[in-house]
């Protein structure tokens, strides 16, 4: 387990870690968490007091705390300009549970076999786009494919119209991912978010596309059987339907949730496995047989462990909360640092090594493997994302022999809360 050396609690000391991480890399945060026994205090401009946590026991306490003591919505306020005030991440309690229950059937359980067939076709198309024999960046192709997938799953957007949607979404997220939004969020009380014309223009274009789709379906009297259809058919206990605003916020929540996560997770899985020839050959052998997915699952779980595509997720203290011998005051933000949590040597011997074999006789469980978060706000797209990533790994390794364009590991590129391979997963593909 971690060996605490010197408890560091002064927020100004902790705050120095983040600028340092931007300059010398995220490992500085890992080191700080190791020195402090898995938790230290810091201060964020515009957010205020925060604690960074990466100890599985503490993370368990955080995720199991009742929502009136520690909530998720408070920490997600920073996403509100995109997902809206009524998006899943912005809600708690009964409203949150009800909307999750409405949306889950579109991306979980019985929907998965049908979506798997569509994912296989998509993966084969992407294989067809890969240049053969020359180095290329795989991540942009994966990103484009996953964006098309989420548009089809949420709103059945036809292929011919997807580019219009992709342009609108890209425009909005260029602003949402920028450092400018952090500064504007910090200055929000001075009107910095309300007075931001380029953001409002980009948001209006996205909103118009979604609201037009809603009104067309209502006019046709045919809601459809995708996620939007489920939201349009939903009724509350009094028989009232969801407002267009609530539906818009859920569609944006799904797009925001899926936008870079799955493609970055998959790009990391390829980045890791092509640098481990034994693992790659076992994965290819299993994909050729096509009868099971034990090794593909192990590769994926291990890639999500060593390179979680979402760097951290947050919670906000609402009532005094005792954690690790400290009393956290209301409004303290809790940041759960996933890469560091996943590198706990007590849970994973030689934690930096990429070893899919760790997962051959066990499945991820507990609070030491959390790429999809935990508790009542666990990622709604987790099973869909696992299915998509596994299917892509299988289809690719069945069709292509992949090797890294450069033997050195790609550095971690850290943007907003996401992690991606610093060279965009540069590989060379050959037909098998
Ligand atoms: C590898 C892929 C993905 C990763 C690593 C990931 C990770 C996460 C994480 C860390 C959270 C926050 C959980 C928490 O606060 O406890 C989250 C929430 C969420 N994700 Fe994902 N995600 C992925 C893919 C997707 C996809 C494909 C979708 C939709 C199709 C999606 C939709 C959502 C939604 C709607 C939420 C908010 C859930 C709520 O607040 O109840 N995610 N995701």
Structural class: alpha+beta
The main β sheet shows up as: 5 strands, mixed
In CATH, what is the homologous superfamily? Cytochrome P450
CATH class: Mainly Alpha
What is the N-to-C order of secondary-structure elements (H for helix, E for strand)?
A: HHHEEHEHHHEHHHHHHHHHEEEEHHEEEE
Bound small molecules, deduplicated: protoporphyrin IX containing FE
The poorly predicted ranges are 1-7
Number of domains: 1
What's the number of extended β-strand segments? 12
Radius of gyration: 22 Å
Q: Specify the overall morphology.
A: globular
Helix content: 40-55%
Q: Which strand-content bin applies to the residues?
A: 5-15%
Task: Average the pLDDT over all residues and give the rounded result.
Answer: 91
Helices and strands, with pairings:
Layout: H1 11-15, H2 17-24, H3 27-35, E1 39-44, E2 48-53, H4 56-64, E3 70-71, H5 80-83, H6 93-107, H7 111-129, E4 136-137, H8 139-155, H9 162-176, H10 179-186, H11 197-220, H12 227-233, H13 244-258, H14 261-273, H15 277-289, H16 294-306, E5 312-317, E6 321-323, E7 326-328, E8 333-337, H17 338-341, H18 382-399, E9 400-404, E10 412-415, E11 418-421, E12 426-431
Helix pairs in contact: 2-3, 7-8, 7-18, 8-13, 8-14, 9-11, 11-13, 14-16, 14-18, 15-16, 15-18
The structure holds protoporphyrin IX containing FE.
